[in-house]
Design goal:
6-stranded mixed beta sheet; 7-stranded parallel beta sheet; binds adenosine-5'-diphosphate; alpha/beta; globular; 21 helices; binds zinc ion
């Protein structure tokens, strides 16, 4: 008989320990079993399995507890490979999240087809055979087409060569075979050329190839040709038979990256992001697991795919906050990527025009191998103009689009070039204020203003998603005097642009227009095909995109982010401005940018206008040093939630009183209510992260065993 130690997936309590079960057969680590716990049958992950000669009674006597047999083994092969198991354990230690939530974070929602009797759909494919046959020229063409496009669906061949397909199969020149239907994720092969590398690109490529270092930080201005460098690295890696993982921060970026990658590597590509259905995710997961995919392009969770033979990890736009998961386990994808790089002895390339301060500081300290590319491929950076909005409004210009931006837009439209307008807020009006009592309409579940969405004629809470009709009376004072709008979002911007340029073709891209499947692809494709003159949207259009005809980028309320109180608000503002600039003039035509801001003298705005990362880094590091913020210190944020304010506060206070060590505990601060939950927070700040973590772990064991109603975020991205 075998003794199993299992992690239990319990729906309510967070049980972060293993439990002992018995099994007649051996079960490998990482397989799931079903087992009875208390009164319920639950799923458990096997942590270890040992053979024993003892009887059940002997084991129970020795352990002093009752031990049960498992009900059944759910997986034939481990779902969690040895590498992923080790990574989950490292993540558990680093994030203080329970092991089971670390395992769950690694697996696609539909880990297995819902039941064993999923209908397997077969598809017909064709391949070339070795058999010698006489072919007509047209048949030969079809035969070559098959050879060069394997695996090819038979239906596709019939579409391409309707008169040759059947004859070729009948004569034995082609073979037809059936395979389980896969890849409902449709991949169009791209047509991106493979340019010769520039001198600088060659130099960088050689520097990386010849070095033995694991982690590289590639800081290259936007359009410096970073992507081309990692495509070459990927090529070299594939030649050695290993797999490549390319991480991108948002789904919005996947279509373009996929096009470039698929142009180079064809269909051995898997993609993985939150826009896929559970079934599609499962298929992509299987492709990676079975080594059918040699290149993966994906967002954050792709870092957990079960690669057998990983040879390169690229993390594009490494500074991006969407790489951080904000629910438990609050891991950073960068840490997971570096962990895997070390485990697999493979290179990890962190790339960005605006690296996070933490990464850049590590680059300067040689913890990461730093490489800088200061020049664009086309040698010209866009010219940045600043529109001081206070002055424009004083001159009675539109508060949405200044005269300067309007003029530049007209010029571009006249030249049939394209324009991107960025406004980092969606909806029509940001908030509505009662004319009677001046109160804003707030979400009934959160302490936050609701935005007016004209498209659907509804108020929306951007935090919890609640929607409601415009109230007839003020919810606060009951007045029927009506509401005053304040602030504007992308819907209103679209309206304004339509009014100013009635003939221009406009596309809007924000969370509201991209909720449908494949909508990102559709919008970006239409814009790339120049079916629109203006693309406007939120930050999802600011990064990574490469359109040759875009020669003007306008950033509306560009310094809005500075109004936040967060220690990272200058950094995120700078990043957004620089990234947005990066979309202009990437090809032959020179580009221009207009920043519409209220505070043109702020160092984040000035350094972004000059596209000067070093300058920003120096100023920002002074600010961080003065406030003792990261990267000079580490932070851990602990948020306590409860249905009543005083309960949340009480627990936060309890922790504060019981946390001791060589670090500060800041708070208790009451945060805004979200999702009907009151929140109180403390922040640990100190130089020794391990010490802080251990102190917190001890305190959790003594005072909050189940970790319920408590969220721990180590190295949080945001505090406000
Ligand atoms: P980054 O990733 O640094 O923003 P990209 O790799 O997207 O830069 O390159 C910017 C533009 O220059 C792209 O349109 C790309 O196709 C082009 N490009 C990159 N490398 C070369 C090269 N060696 N020769 C010609 N064009 C190039
Ligand atoms: Zn009112
Ligand atoms: Zn809400």
């Amino acid at each position: 008989m075998y003794i199993l130690n299992c992690w239990i997936e319990h729906p309510v309590r967070t049980l972060d320990q293993t439990f002992t079960y018995l099994s007649e057969t051996e079960v490998q680590r990482g397989c799931r079993v079903s087992a009875v716990f208390g009164m319920k049958t639950l799923t458990a992950f096997v942590d270890s399995c040992q053979y024993t000669n003892e009887t059940q009674a002997q084991i129970e006597a020795r352990m002093g507890i009752k031990v049960r047999y498992i009900e059944s083994v759910l997986d034939e092969h481990p779902l969690i490979t040895e590498e992923l198991y080790q990574m989950a354990m490292a993540m558990r230690k680093a994030t203080l999240a329970p092991a089971i939530s670390c395992f769950s974070a690694m697996l696609p929602a539909k880990v297995k087809p819902a039941s064993g009797n999923r209908k397997i759909i077969m598809e017909k494919f064709v391949s070339v055979s070795e058999q010698e046959t006489r072919l007509t020229p047209k048949q030969l063409e079809a035969w070559i087409y098959v050879r060069d496009h394997q695996p090819l669906l038979y239906s596709e061949l019939r579409k391409q060569y309707p008169n040759q397909a059947k004859a070729l199969v009948d004569s034995g020149a082609l073979r037809v075979y059936e395979k389980e239907k896969r890849g409902s994720v449709y991949l169009e092969e791209g047509t991106y050329a493979r340019p010769d590398l520039t001198e600088l690109q060659t130099k960088v490529l050689n520097e990386i190839t010849e070095s033995d270092d694991t982690v590289y930080l590639l800081r290259g201005v936007t359009g410096s040709g970073k992507t081309e460098i990692y495509l070459r690295l990927a090529e070299n890696t594939l030649k050695t038979g290993k797999q490549v993982l390319i991480l991108v921060p948002e789904i919005a970026l996947t279509p373009q990256m996929i096009e470039r990658v698929s142009s180079r590597f064809g269909r051995t590509l898997a993609i993985y992001h939150s826009g896929l259905s559970p079934q599609e995710k499962y298929e992509q997961y299987r492709m990676v697991m079975n080594n059918e995919a040699s290149v993966v392009v994906g967002t954050r969770s792709a870092v957990f795919l079960p690669f057998e033979n990983l040879g390169l990890i690229v993390m594009d736009e490494e500074h991006d906050s969407s790489y951080k998961q904000d629910s438990s386990p609050c891991y950073h994808c960068r840490d997971a990527a570096i962990w895997r790089g070390n485990y697999n002895h493979c290179k990890v390339i962190l790339a960005s025009a605006t690296p996070s301060l933490e990464s850049y500081a590590r680059g300067l300290k040689k913890v990461y191998h730093l490489i800088v590319m200061e020049e664009r491929i086309n040698k010209t950076l866009p010219v940045v103009h600043i529109a001081q909005m206070r002055d424009s409004i004083r001159r009675n210009e539109s508060y949405i689009i200044s005269d300067l931006l309007k003029e530049k837009m007209q010029e571009r439209l006249d030249h049939h070039e394209q324009i991107i307008l960025l406004l980092n807020r969606r909806g029509y009006h940001a908030r509505l204020r009662c004319r009677g009592c001046q109160e804003v309409i707030r979400c009934p579940h959160c302490d936050l203003a609701m935005s007016w969405h004209r498209d659907i004629r509804m108020l929306k809470c951007h935090t919890c998603g609640t929607e409601m009709k415009m109230p007839l009376k003020c919810p606060s004072c009951g007045s029927t005097a009506g509401f005053m709008p304040a602030g504007f979002g992308t819907e209103k911007l679209e309206h304004e642009v339509e009014t100013l340029f009635p003939d221009a073709r406009i596309l809007r891209m924000d969370a509201d227009t991209t909720s449908r499947k494949n909508s990102h692809e559709r919008i970006l494709k239409a814009f790339a095909a120049h079916e629109a003159d203006i693309l406007l949207g939120t930050q999802m259009i600011a990064k990574g995109l490469d359109f040759a005809d875009v020669t003007l980028v306008g950033i509306i309320n560009g310094d809005d982010g500075l109004a936040r109180t967060d220690f990272r608000s200058c950094e995120t503002t700078f990043d957004l401005l620089v990234q947005a600039c990066g979309r202009s003039g990437r090809s032959e035509k020179a580009g221009e940018v207009v920043f519409q801001v209220f505070d043109p003298d702020h160092y984040a705005v000035i350094s972004a206008a000059a596209q000067d990362y070093e300058r920003f880094f120096a100023s920002e590091m002074r600010f961080r040093h003065a406030g003792q913020y990261p990267p000079y210190t580490y932070l851990i944020s602990c948020t306590f939630t409860a249905m009543k304010q005083e309960d949340a506060e009480k627990r936060a206070r309890l922790f504060k009183e019981n946390l001791h060590g060589n670090f500060k505990v800041i708070g208790v601060i009451d945060l805004l209510k979200i999702h009907d939950l009151y929140r109180s927070r403390i922040i640990l700040k100190g130089k020794d992260l391990d010490e802080m973590r251990e102190a917190l772990h001890r305190c959790m064991q003594e005072h909050a065993n189940d970790g319920k109603g408590m969220r721990i975020d180590i190295n949080p991205m945001y505090l406000d």
